Amino acid sequence: MDYLYHPFASKRHTVFAKKGMVATSQPLAAQAGLEILQKGGNAIDAAIATAAALTVVEPTSNGIGGDAFALVWVKDELFGLNSSGPAPQSISVEALKELGHEKMPIHGVIPVTVPGVPAAWAALSKRFGKLSLLEALQPAIRYAEEGYPLTPILGKYWKLAYNKFKTNFTTEEFEAWFETFAPGGEAPEIGEVWKSPDHAATLKSIGESEARSFYEGELADKMDAFMKKHNGYLSKSDLSKYEPKWVTPISTNYRGYDVWEIPPNGQGMVALMALNIFEKLSHPAWQSAETLHQQIEAMKLAFTDGQAFITEPEDMPILAEVLLSDEFAEERSKVITDTASDPVPYELPKGGTVYLAAADEEGNMVSYIQSNYMGFGSGIVIPGTGIALQNRGADFSLDESHPNVLKPGKRTYHTIIPGFLTKDGQAVGPFGVMGGYMQPQGHFQVITNTIDYLLNPQAALDMPRWQWMKGKSVHVEPEFPNYLVQALARKGHEVHVTPEGGSFGRGQIIWRDNKTGVLQGGTESRTDGAIAAW
């Protein structure tokens, strides 16, 4: 791909390498992946090593008790892994309403769903890895045993979480969180060394048993006992029945490139829908208020439809194929006018985190994402294990008429999404932008920056971002050009310049030049991002 260079957009330089590359949001995790590559592992082993290390060195964003998704390019074929866990079999709308809940709680034992992360590591290792799972987990085990110093962005969010938790989480079920993440009664400071021997022992057990101890053995017993003690719903039976799903990735063709995502229950389809709608409009002009307006309007339509319809495939009131069709994009593009809109979902016919990218010299490439959701997740840590559990169940609806209504054994609408780009059947590479509902918006902006404006990987990530919030409300970063802010306001957008950089997502990109095999990587300037390469 030939690039145009816009110096104001780049805060770092794109990294080039030949033999292998790992890009993620934390330098030590990237180094873990590189270590495994240099020991003879492939990109899949490196991705597992990096993911496991991230549970240790960036616990503010993910953990062993979270969910994961992956897109894996091996031997000229793209594979998808959905390792998101379902709601426990004993939970129900009726049970929660009897307890007085009108909405799903955000923290505590109730929103905990079956964790998919350990199963993802095991499935990836078994199908595509060259090393054993235990070998891939060794760097993470070492970081947990020996400790590591907190980096600046990590320390910032750790402190924010601690200050929030110490005020709100005062009951017994949250005690293990403070024992694990606030040893000595305080959050660790930037530069201070934090270690977690319980976390190390858990990772070792997962590696030795290929994750079965987590779902069927000693770790499952500990989770089951904790949930019973604190009136939670997750049980050993739920854990033992869990298996991740290999799925067929979905895609759309955007100006000659195929953009790939994981199919529902994930929200990756939102990014594809937005690209489809935007492509129906006038060809984008660089730094044009009209183009920016059309991008925002396309995204808000895609997001509104996505949140109305995306859930488990069998519960969706409209087929994914219809939402991604050319006809649907054409229909939705006609809704866009010259002024900002308050979007409403498409009217159906009457009748219903952390991200990483890895690549090796063999041509294998991995787009991988895992998360506990909302920072530290549920706030629940299983004593003696270092396992911080996710709160994905918080996204379920308790409205019986909503497609994403809570049901036993059902997976919820999921925010974390890995992306992948190909052209003419050849891999260009993995990309992703983590950050809750910013993720499809980040995917959309990275792809348009890359394809429409020919920005190199680092510049595509560094460009000032916008985020549609709701209605006509749009947040932009402080670096966003003021003339565009004013022009959007004249079109009726309620534009808020927001200083909090973390809310605009954190991304990574690795592209491959298929003629030379050279890898080109970009990493997020909004966090402690790093690229390890050789």
Provide keyphrases for this structure:
single chain, 534 residues, alpha+beta, Serum Albumin, Chain A, Domain 1, 2 domains, seven-stranded antiparallel beta sheet, 18 helices, 36% helix, globular
Structure description:
The protein starts with 14 loop residues before the first strand and ends with a strand. Helix 12 packs across helix 16. It is of the alpha+beta class and 534 residues long. The chain is 36% helix and 19% strand.
Gist of the model:
The protein has 534 residues and is an alpha+beta fold. It is 36% helix and 19% strand. It is built from 18 helices and 21 strands.
Mean pLDDT: 93
Number of helices: 18
Oligomer: single chain
Describe the main β-sheet briefly: 7 strands, antiparallel
- Major beta sheet, strand line-up: 1-20-19-15-14-9-8
End-to-end C-alpha gap = 21 Å
Q: Could you say which structural class the secondary elements and strand pairing correspond to? A: alpha+beta
Query: What form results from the Cα inertia axes?
Result: globular
Q: What's the number of extended β-strand segments? A: 21
Low-confidence stretches: none
Estimated radius of gyration = 22 Å
The level of helicity is 25-40%
Beta content:
15-25%
Number of domains: 2
Task: Give the topology.
Blueprint: E1 15-17, E2 20-24, H1 27-38, H2 43-57, E3 67-74, E4 77-83, H3 93-98, H4 117-128, H5 133-146, E5 148-149, H6 152-168, H7 175-181, E6 193-194, H8 197-209, H9 212-215, H10 218-229, H11 236-240, E7 245-247, E8 250-254, E9 257-261, H12 268-279, H13 289-309, H14 320-323, H15 326-333, E10 354-360, E11 365-371, E12 381-382, E13 387-388, E14 419-423, E15 426-434, H16 439-451, H17 457-462, E16 466-470, E17 473-476, H18 482-490, E18 494-497, E19 506-512, E20 519-523, E21 530-533
Parallel strand pairs: 17-18
Antiparallel strand pairs: 1-20, 2-10, 2-21, 3-4, 3-11, 4-7, 5-6, 8-9, 9-14, 10-11, 12-13, 14-15, 15-19, 16-17, 19-20
